[in-house]
Design goal:
Blueprint: H1 2-25, H2 30-52, H3 57-94, H4 102-130, H5 142-158, H6 163-168, H7 175-179, H8 186-207, H9 209-234, H10 237-251, H11 254-259, H12 261-284, H13 289-306, H14 313-322, H15 328-338, H16 344-358, H17 369-382, H18 392-403, H19 409-413, H20 418-443, H21 449-452
Helix pairs in contact: 1-2, 1-3, 2-10, 2-13, 3-8, 3-9, 3-10, 3-15, 4-12, 4-15, 4-16, 4-17, 4-20, 8-9, 10-13, 12-16, 12-20, 13-20, 14-15, 14-20, 15-20, 16-17, 16-18, 16-20, 17-18
Length: about 475
């Protein structure tokens, strides 16, 4: 009977996928399909959990098959990350008419990412104060115990690594190893290498324009081929989202949500405030938040369901250039930098909250302005090199707590609600990288308001 139920669940899921296939053939707008996929995934996942329960054999095995669509989609996007970073950043240099905007672009993108991360850390700390979580204790179960043991082994690998040593680790020693993502800092290492290649191109362009022109054409060809692959993969977005959302709702531990409800609520309040801060910054950049939100909904929906900032990179860059009017150079810089530097959710709010919660247990005065500034500074510096994939927040938290000589056990104690919080964290991460693109493009006078304000200029035009 169990196999029959599993077959029934999978049959319904296949019928859902076929429905989205028919919608695609009928040219239903991409944003509408993404929104519908989100809703269908929520309903289908909830039904599975209510009917069969979260840890039942039916749910476990059915989700294992459904994961082929969800995790398979994320894997395809992650496949593109390293080549996309390389061709995007190098291509950004080849598209520069001159070098006068290069400094402004890089400085403004980095400043936006880091300043908002520092502000996000402060917001996270204030949320802990608001909900009176400082010194709070959380229940430790079997899963939490196992996670703490795992964290202890991971902490041993980085406990003797100072912040200067962490910065040195960003420099690639074997670019081929980093292109295959063998290190936690491989993403930023590829960013560094790509930047050096771009700068070298500018030098060659001055002395040997003919060779530089050949290289620029080669990079442009690679960029177009890569973006074509991106388009092919992005067409699978509704299928991936419905599968990912089904898994989240079918396997979420709602009892843990009740037990750690205060922490989850405090996290979401902090992340919502950070998101609102982004909207205020958009106003200063003379961008209508309502128009902006309408255009970025597909990429934020994917970020929410996939929990992968890096996986959202292709859709991120497409959204910036085709829907928001950001120039290609800035979009490529902002998108690539944003997945490894200054992630507001994973590297800003989250580690700052954990530090503020656990500090009083070791006798630290968390209300001291100097200690608050110390947490903000450590969080901002540590935000460099945080991988934009699942586990990035854990890595950032270990670095921050270790640098402040605070116990890391709290990271393991909140494992049961980690996926629920991580969805919102990832959404904020991706939104901040697009914000950096808009702010920078506006500053250098390259933001195309006609594209930004054109309701027909959306990512779905090619999907």
């Amino acid at each position: 009977m169990t196999n029959l139920y599993i077959l029934l669940v999978l049959t319904v899921f296949l019928a859902i996928l076929f429905m989205f296939y028919r919608m695609q053939k009928k040219h239903v707008a991409f944003s509408k399909r993404v929104f519908l996929a989100l809703g269908v995934g929520v309903i289908f996942g909830t039904v599975i959990q209510l009917v069969f329960e979260r840890e039942s054999v039916v749910t476990t095995k059915a989700i294992d098959w459904i994961n082929i669509a969800g995790n398979g989609y994320v894997s395809l996007l992650q496949m593109l990350i390293m080549p996309l970073i390389f061709v995007s950043i190098v291509g950004a240099f080849t598209k520069l008419e001159g070098t006068k905007n290069l400094g402004k672009i890089s400085v403004t993108v980095l400043a936006t990412l880091l300043i908002t991360t520092a502000a996000s850390a402060l917001i996270g700390i204030l949320s802990v104060f608001l909900f009176k979580l400082q010194g709070a204790e959380f229940t430790k179960g079997a899963a939490e115990t196992a996670r703490i043991a795992d964290l202890a082994s991971r902490q041993e690998l980085i406990q003797d690594v100072t912040i200067p040593q962490q910065i040195v680790s960003f420099i690639p020693t074997n670019i081929f190893a980093d292109l295959s993502g063998t290190r936690a800092t491989s993403t930023i290492a590829v960013v560094v290498f790509s930047t050096f290649v771009g700068m070298a191109y500018l030098g060659v362009k001055r002395k040997s324009p003919q060779e530089a022109e050949f290289f620029a054409k080669l990079i442009e060809s690679l960029y177009k081929i890569t973006m074509r692959i991106v388009t092919l993969v992005l067409r699978l977005t509704p299928y991936g989202i419905v599968a990912l959302m089904t898994k989240v709702l079918a396997t979420s531990n709602f009892q843990a949500l009740v037990n750690l409800g205060k922490f989850v609520l405090a996290s979401y309040v902090a992340l919502i405030v950070v998101f609102l801060m982004h909207m205020v910054i958009l106003l200063f950049a003379k961008v209508n938040p309502a128009i902006y939100l309408q255009k970025v909904f597909p990429v934020l929906s994917f970020a929410f369901t996939s929990r992968s900032s890096a996986g959202a990179l292709p859709l991120n860059i497409e959204t910036q250039t085709k829907a928001l009017g950001v120039d290609e150079t800035t979009a490529n810089f902002a998108g690539s930098f944003g997945i490894s530097i200054g992630q507001n959710g994973c590297a800003g709010v989250y580690p700052a909250m954990l530090a503020a919660i656990v500090a009083p247990t070791v006798g630290m005065d968390i209300f001291s302005p100097m200690y608050i500034l110390t947490i903000m500074a450590v969080v901002t510096i540590s935000s460099f090199g945080v991988a934009g994939v699942g586990g990035g927040a854990t890595f950032a938290s270990l670095i921050v707590l270790g640098s402040l000589d605070l116990p890391v056990e709290i990271v393991g104690l909140v494992i049961s609600v980690e996926p629920l919080i991580d969805m919102a964290r990832t959404t904020v991460n991706v939104n901040d990288s697009m914000l950096a693109g808009i702010v920078t493009s506006r500053r250098i006078g390259e933001l195309d308001d006609r594209v930004l304000n054109d309701p027909k200029a959306v990512v779905s035009s090619s999907l």
